Amino acid sequence: MRFQKLHFILYAKISFIALLTITSCSSEDDGDPGPQISIPKYSVLASVGDQEYLTTSDDLSSGKISIVGQGLETNSFGSAVTKDGYTYLNNFNESTVDQYQVTENGWEKINSISIAPLSPSGSFRLMQITGDNTLLLTNWPDDNGDCPYAIVSLPSFTVASNGSFNIPDVKGFDPVEIGGLVKDGKIYLGTMYSNVGTWDSFPDSLITWKLDYPSFTNPEMIVSTASLGTVAGFTGPSSLVDEKGDIYQQNIRSKHWYNMGTREEMPTVFVRIRDGEYDDSYVFNVSEKFGGTVSLIGIQYVGNGIAYGKLLDEDATNEWGDAWANNYTSIVKIDLYNKTITKLNIPQGPFIAIREGIVENGKLYLPISPVGQTAHIYEITIGGGADDFVKGAELDGNNVVANAIFKNE
């Protein structure tokens, strides 16, 4: 009996140990990842006075997102992009471009690139992600028309190439600003031409330079006579490419823009570039849709021929400072294919304070910061009508300027 009892106890212990081993192996074999690390879904880049912060949130549709003193203090003046879980910020204070990643412990700087060896001015005004997983940095033309550039490989964040290219004078006009997009081995650089110093005359046309990319060689000028002004962009891009491969541009011809008020008869338009040339069969005259003088100051494409833009009421004031810093700008839905434009019944704000949103699940989440009012993120139903939106998360304070929203993925 003693032997049988001892045998039973030993058998039970061995079985228990075996069960633990099997359970442990089974857990490993099942690929149990262990504790899951969660990071916030979104980031909001916003400024309060002279201070700028990159903060995070899991909810854009409700509640409050605290900005002041939260997250990462930055100096990008709204110049930031994201790609594959990394955020790239123009650091104007230190003359660097910085690579960040948000972790469970907050923002972590991964690397920095010094701009001084790449750009004589020590800065790049423009930063964009291209389709070949690179970060393109460019600057406006200097007095000789030379534009420095750098191409940064991602996510390694290393400089693949750098140099400069030249944008020449055209009929006595100086190149002032550039901005555009990369498509099919070409870069299309919309430009602004004027007389540097006087700013009192402009070509009677829209001018884009097309160059081979990434070599920035074989420059070719293409011209549209649909209107005048700049197609270089300002607070937001002026160019987009649709699913068909066509490029659409909108001009800024504001009467507050330098001394362009002398040419108010020239309209705000959309033009199209098809097969590398301006397609003169397509002109969308935005000005004729409204009574009075209006200008589009930046657009965001959301797909299927639909874009959303910032429409400035030019007649509300004759002061440039008021035009960009007070509540004279509306959000509009633009149907490029059917040539219609719909003003949304969202509170107006300064165009400088309405930047870029994100598209998710058929919604455009767009931050709007009216002067003297509380800033909110608005959830806009893409393709909907004037009232197809809801007021989303509140941004603390009435002096917050939200520059952009990003997904942390």
Automatic annotation (TrEMBL):
Origin: domain of life: Bacteria
InterPro entries according to UniProt: Gal_Oxase/kelch_b-propeller
Protein name: Lipoprotein
Higher taxonomy: Bacteria, Pseudomonadati, Bacteroidota, Cytophagia, Cytophagales
